Fold each of these.
Amino acid sequence: MIAAPPSPSEPTVSLADARAQFTGARGYLAACTLGLPSSGTVAALRDDSERWARGHATAAHYGALVERVRTSYAGLVSVPASSVAIGSQTSVIAAMVAASVPDGAEVLCVDGDFSSMVFPFLAQAHRGVRVRHVPVAELAASVGADTWLVAFSLVQSATGTIADSAAIAAAARARGAYTLCDTTQAAGWMPVDASVFDATICHSYKWLCSPRGVAFLTVGAAFGALLRPVQAGWYAGEDVWGSCYGPDMTLAADARRFDVSPAWPAWVGAEPALALFRSLDLTAVRSHTVSLGDALCDGLGIERQNQAILTWPDPDGADLGRLTAAGLTASGRAGRARVAFHIWNDEDDVSLALAALRR
């Protein structure tokens, strides 16, 4: 029996209080590259290092902590904890899914999507797996009779464009195809419902502000039955501590059979991070971040993009250079300048960016 997803949490932390948990964030416009740790994450990592140094760290303690984080993430994306597997990197999880694509099947990807959602499928060409790339706006209309899987990012890394996930999911269902959605650039600044997809992947070191190395797979029962746990190790066992040695293998019956053993300190930092974002009204977070992005668009005299990630053409990197020279942290991708607004940003960050770009 599959457990029901955790009940949605009522917001208990205001944006103002959440912003106060981030120090040194003025002018940091790069959550889409690397999130910042909250004061809770910094304290947890420091305490864990001291606990480890004193010889008081135990595997059992870390194991219980990982399960709390799994449950917290499940609640954040509206699925039961039994549907969540833990991992370390987007590409590693995607590679497991790619290894399960039938020989000769078609995978539909977004032209220009982040390579971790593309390369694992291209690497299956030796089995006849075919990868077709289309613009994100054409994804739903491009699902064909031969499409086995639609693999895409909910928010495009290079441009911040938000995919029409409802149309994509509906088109895939109509054609008998499955959906794999990367929510790495979405979860944390906007509400995400992972249950509408057959599977999702999220690396939490960006908008969810966890240490790098904390990633999640959510998978529905029907699609999960088709996946091969090619990375199975002791942590994927039904009884984790009873799975440390061969020759017998009894994997977990739920999504834990796709688990990869966790890098414990990273998960220590993730616990307060996930708890913080689960306590926020993510609709309000989206409104806050998008309003800042739109304000920057207005100041630059360009069309509003209604996104937390804002990009514009910058082929020679001149605008990125101006932002960096002014002491702001931004990024450049695919010939475009890229800034991101998160909960720690406010109107003063918009003013600083505009002042730098107008020089």
Amino acid sequence: MSQVSQLEPSQINLEDINPNWEWNRPISAPGRMAVDFEERVDFRRLHKYRLGRAQKALEESDLGAILCFDNNNIRYLTSCVIGEWARDKICRYALLTGNSNPYLWDFGSAASHHRLYAPWLENDHCLAGMLGLRGSVNADAGFFKRAAKEIVELLRKEGVADMPLGVDIVEPPMLFALQAEGLDVRDVQQVMLNARQIKSMDEIVLLNMSASMVDGVYHLIAENLKPGMRENELVALANKFLYDNGSDDVEAINAVSGERCSPHPHNFTDRMYRPGDQAFFDVIQSYMGYRTCYYRTLNVGSYTPEQKDAYQKAREWIDNAIELVKPGLTTDKIAEVWPRAEEFGFASEMEAFGLQFGHGLGLALHERPIISRLVSLDNPFELQEGMVFALETYCPAADGNGAARIEEEVIVTADGCRIITLFPSKELFIANAY
């Protein structure tokens, strides 16, 4: 049994695992191989940090245990993943009581694989599980009931069966089965978000490595963005580049151009690029689970004054937000520097949500903080050192021919922030200029 799996929860010292950040040094984006000649990401240290953060958040809550079906929370607790296909199946689950290391129920043979290749988990905590595959197997088959009884037995063993059980996402039959066992089921997503909001330096390096992959994607896009190419072709090129370079999940790539730019449709089509088109892209992918949300706007060969003006406004709005970022700032102050929905063509903040926007990044695309005029003005949230989030702005061109979309990923440092999205964006980028 590994040293990590032998640790009792109370033995995990977060300060020892993640000492103070040294912001005077560059944040590295090392190669992906393990080497003996320099320190890179320490994945066992990463596991101990994440587990320690979750245990601390559980201890500070009124819950006795955490039951997770959200794959991002499962990975945070167990450092185990079995692929993108599991994202929407709600078929895997993990239990953390605070009195022991995590239990993991995985899909069929994955459990026995973990017992061989995941020594940081205790062998008898790696179990096979089967529920309903989102209703494909009827609840009458009894799998939900059997799982609930197994969970209750473990809660009794760990001495927390009389305390509330926190659950993040759940199929209704599973919820009903847990309640039928007499459990007080409550929401645990806020507890897990508490744990996940402050990143260790290993997490920050992984986020930086993930962003560096998208830097390369945009260079590839810039080389290929020309008349005759189509949105879907650039999406395909970007997907290949990312998987070739180690991405474990290309969640989505938006490719939006020309008349499709306003309003923003959040997708891609087979539209062919034309001379003078304004085009923006969003690359959402992950490296070792750590995600990017990374917009850039590029023009095809040339630009109009209206397109350039839209870009300058979007750049001004994002720069005004970045300048404010520091520990102790509340998110309403960032939202206040962004234009009201009516100022860029929308009837309400709900309709404009996601356009002047900020959101935390980590194992999920949307973590804390969420920043927008819709949310933040009445519900401000305080920034802390070690948070990582994206800021994004949008401005349609006045003549209706395009729109500008810019996004930067920032790390909150001791006295400000550090930008890790490095493809040029201070000026409107003209690809293959005429």
Amino acid sequence: MRFRPKNVLIGLALAGSGIAISALAGANLLAIILALFAGAAAALLIVQPDQPEEEIAAADGAVPAPPSIEAGPILDAIEDPLLLVRERRVVLANAAARAVLGEHIGGADVRLAIRHPAAAERLADLGEEGGKGRIELLGLGGNERRWEMAVTRLPDRSRLVRLTDRSQMHAAEQMRTDFIANASHELRTPLATVLGFLETLLDDPDAPEGARNRFLKIMLDEATRMRQIVNDLISLSRIEAERYTLPDEPVDLIPMLREVEDTLENVVRAQMSEVRVEQLAGTAMVPGDRAQLHQLFSNLVANALKYGREGHPVTIRLEEAGAMLKVSVVDEGEGIAPEHLPRLTERFYRVDAGRSRSVGGTGLGLAIVKHIIGRHRGRLDIKSMLGKGTEVQVFLPRWRDAES
């Protein structure tokens, strides 16, 4: 298909939040397609093919006709799969459509090209209003894929079928739903415990002092846990709000890691352990947000101490890795089974929920770590071997590379 503009009229009308582009019944088909898909930057080129070129030249001061435009490359530039259908036959399919549906779809019955029962039912009706509107297609191109199919009737009675991938949007919505459900559960459990013991104490004001103190201690622990969950949720929200702002403060990790060690002194003492810092890099300066980096390494070292073996050290090793600085936090604990590793940074995901709660974990620590590293344009790797321990590697841009 070739598009040769002749007498060109441009009709753009602002309508609401978008742009409505009006077309004449005899408009060139490619021009209509471009108007439908080119968005706010588009101008509809309306061609009057019956006007001789000589008249056009006379009317326009003998201006040479512009070169012809190939339709294929233009339509291939549209990211959504796009099919032009006449009498149920696919007469044109862009590159995105061929990638999803297969290279064979040209000339095929559209109901065979889009092998989906809901799509076949919608596209079977060739009536004046048949096939119009939007529907959702589940499983097209893969079990987890979700598409929205929109059908537009064109002036020449052909139809334009557009597929829009909604998989990521659905996944994000599912993550949001799961997050709200998990957060509600995590807060409801300690709250129920606190309320239960409060009711017990109110119902029995003469309870023995030993029992009262035990109840109060449990209530304090659960309230502290709720506070930590809320604090972690607030931290996540702040980090996500700043994720597009690149930190540029020079931070020396060595003194900061000493501060982390001092902060966790009680945990170190309880585990009868120690934290060793090995500096194998020439410099430990990185561009960053100091408070967030302190939180990042506090979470990692605290995890290593809590889940490592009692009496065994936690090692923090700093090494150069090309343009990056690699900081490894290594424990000598029980290790983590391989099937759990890909999910460790999910919010509220726990390998052992009971043990995590017993040591005060909220299930948000590694999610916070992942988001902080992402904001600092770094990388996170977790390696573990059952019975040997776990090594968490953080790669951060080095300061001198950020300046150059």
Amino acid sequence: MSQSIFVSTLPRRLVSVSVLGMILLMTACSKPAPPEEPVRAVKVMTVGFAGYQAETEYAAEVRPRLESRLGFRVAGKIVRRQAEIGQKVQAGQVLAEIDPKDYRLSAEAAQAQVNAAKTNRDLAQADFNRFKTLKEQNFISGAELDRREAAVLSAQAQLEQAQSQLAVQGNQAGYAKLVADRPGVVTAIEAEPGQVVVAGAPVVRLAMDGPRDVLFAVPEDKLVGVSMGTKVTVRVWSSQAILHGKVREIASSADPLTRTFAVKVALDEGTAPPLGSTVFATPKIKMIADTAVIKLPTSALRQDGNSSAVWVLDPETMTVKSRSVQVLTAEGNLAVIGGGLKPGDKVVSTGVHVLAPGQKVTEYKDKVTQRAEAGRGAP
């Protein structure tokens, strides 16, 4: 009897074990459920229109409209320098001299060649005159007279060549003196007596008399508001005098070191301060001066393709969505937004690079804000 009971219960146990094994096997083969996306706490700011100071003052310097680096047209050793920094010079005034001995000797040699060529020409002319008389008396042939005429023409050509060479050597002797081609002010000396210079090497820097410019550098983000003809107010640092000018030149490329663009403002010659004076230039930017703008911290911006974008919070669903915005310029650590947002929009201000479209978020509130809200809600 006991043996039959044991036999009948054994299959039930086997069936239970096999069913349990199948359940465990199915549980192990099924994929685990994906973890729920965390709800991130983000700082949110409500945007609104703000005033924009479109005018920016730049430190600038008064520079000459034309400034030349004058150098000798021939090589040589500088023996004398008459120019000094800050000296007012007139056109034709000697600024420096190099040793002219070699050029004088070359000019004398060229003069000797001219004299020799002139003598040969005169001798050939005399021979031609004699042979011409003989030809009239039929003592020589016409061919012989032609040869004498050719000799005269050749001697004349040699004389002209020698005269041209003498003129070149005479000019080089004259180039031993460096003279000012226009009136101006000496702003720099780049070579001293005793120094051997090559032709064209700068010796004196001369600021030509005439109109003056105000030179200042503009960052790339501010260049959008500066254009040719923009009116500029110039304030002189020493006297606080106010001058007016217009932008006449904007650099086509940025400085490789400072990454700024050089801007030149034309000033009237009669009212311009002395060269090198420190002034402050304020361009009259009209492009966005009267436009209602929204300011955001730069931490709220992110790059979305080729445009700038921000995360906008939907208060009903507490999710974020991306929105493209138009950035006009920067004002310190704030970005000036010209389009894409409207007053009342809630924008995520920090942590924008860890969010995704449609992600649920909560508004981060510091302890002070939490206490204030708790105090208002208390009875």
